[in-house]
Amino acid sequence: MRAIKAVLFEPVGCLAEFPAEEFNEIAGSLFESTEPPSESGSEAYWQLLDLMEHAGDRLKPSDTAIIEELERKAIDRVQLYEDVAPALAALKAMDITLLIASSLSATAVNRFLDKFSLTGYFSRVWTRDSAEGVKALPLRKAVESAAFQAEHVVCLVDTADGIELARQVGVNSMLMFNDYDEGKRLAMLGPAGAIVSLHELPDAIRFVAEGARDPRA
């Protein structure tokens, strides 16, 4: 892995524990999903993104409004991980560019950042609205806006979908161990690295930087 210059964050699962109910409701009521409701907020979110990607631009304005309202309700119930602010501050002090690359709506992301006073940490915020799509599009827009080669960028992930998406975009995936057993399974999918707490992310990036400077690495 090359020296890391930027980190991409998806709020769902990587910065906070999101409830699953609102994502399940969107999938069932608007997309008529036949998948069983997920108890995991991250899994429910990624299942919904698959449905949204398949629907493309066929959603009506009224459907979009319903989705945004349910996302706002999820934000109101969300729990921020306690190590987020210290980790972001440490990364900023290391001159690492921090970006949001999310498939949530702009309304939801801005509400999330305002609720937890996180806006000032991020150089740029990309959502499904500004990127004009979900999943890979916000990541690609974030990498382009940072003007770094993808190999110098880390994307924080907590699902198999996130690992695969990072691989498609060409960035390095850093796995968040939110559940030990699930984390062990996901580690077999080949992420570039893994952490159990955001407190570990600055040290992980320093370790990568040392390896990049070492000609033997």
Describe the structure.
With about 220 residues, this protein is α/β, with parallel strands linked by helices. It has two domains: about 5-15 and about 80-215, HAD superfamily/HAD-like (Rossmann fold), CATH 3.40.50.1000; about 20-75, no CATH class. Helix 2 (about 20-30) runs parallel beside helix 3 (about 40-55) and helix 2 (about 20-30) runs antiparallel to helix 4. The chain has helices at about 10-15, 20-30, 40-55, 60-75, 85-95, 105-115, 135-145, 160-170, 180-185, 200-215; strands spanning about 5-10, 15, 80, 95-100, 125, 155, 170-175, 195. The strands form two sheets. It has a six-stranded parallel sheet with strand order 5-4-1-6-7-8. A two-stranded antiparallel sheet has the order 2-3. The model has no long low-confidence stretch (mean pLDDT about 90).
